[in-house]
Amino acid sequence: MEKKSPEPPEEASQSRDSSRDNQTWITAQNILREKLITEDCFAWKLQAGSKEEEALRYVGGVDISFSKDDPSRACGTLVVLDFHTLQVLYQDFSLVTLQVPYVPGFLAFREAPVLLQLLEKMKRSNNPFYPQLLMVDGNGILHPRGFGLACHIGVEANLPTIGIGKNLYKLQLHHVDGLTHSRVRELLGAEENCSEDFINLVGCSGHIWGVAMRSTQGSIKPIFISIGHKISLQTAIMIVQMTCKYRVPEPIRQADIRSRDYIRKLEANAKVK
């Protein structure tokens, strides 16, 4: 009988460290998830009926772009838009070197600290445009442990958040309650769903984890909306629909455009020097 070669000491140590990190992160996610609110919990209204009522005016978007030359170099971006005009009122950037690797299911531990710092900086300065709601380029409860990046940021910042997934790739990695890449493609391709703008992402348990939304007429590629924190799925869908000029809602689109542009200019300047 052939004996299995022993794992090299360095690789064995890295494997143990990785396993230890994963368990620590799972524990942290479980603690934060106890604070998660998956229904509407905010003072503002989409359309205020009187002067006394607070209306939704400031919608934020956060995204991170990575350097092509060095994947550990990243630019975190926060933008705030006027909910009615979709004009950018505020933007800020943070260029960082990330020490935490990307591990499927634990994206928040890599990206959330950068984005939370941008929010905290804005809050400390008493900026009048501080967002009443935040859209996050990443999933909310559409996650293997029901606590993705949008949930993590929402709970930590105590803000209503909406998770916006832009592709199926991460679902393929996560396999949320049976919602594999092939299962979601099957739902999207079903004849009864061809003319639908929204398709419920129903897992094997019967739970609705989010929706696939065709945000513009004739759009083939949907976006994936899920609850982040302090908001219901129904309200999240309404707000996303009201902020879509193109396929991706404008707060996320603007954060993405500006973060890519910022890091591209920095790299170009560095090459000139």
Description:
The chain is α+β, with helices and mostly antiparallel strands and 273 residues long. The chain has helices at 9-33, 108-124, 149-157, 169-174, 181-189, 233-242, 250-272, and strands at residues 58-66, 73-82, 88-97, 133-137, 161-165, 198-202, 208-213, 223-229. α3 (149-157) links the parallel β4 and β5.
Structure described in brief:
This protein is α+β, with helices and mostly antiparallel strands and 273 residues long. It contains seven helices and eight strands; from the N terminus they run H-E-E-E-H-E-H-E-H-H-E-E-E-H-H.
Which assembly state applies to the chains in this document? single chain
CA(first)-CA(last) distance: 61 Å
The backbone outline, from C-alpha atoms, is globular
Rg value: 20 Å
Structural class: alpha+beta
Major sheet strand order: 3-2-1-4-5-8-7-6
Range of strand content: 15-25%
Could you give a short account of the major beta sheet?
A: 8 strands, mixed
User: What is the mean predicted local confidence, pLDDT?
Assistant: 85
Helix content: 25-40%
Question: Could you list some keywords that capture this structure?
Answer:
alpha+beta; eight-stranded mixed sheet; 7 helices; 8 strands; disordered N terminus
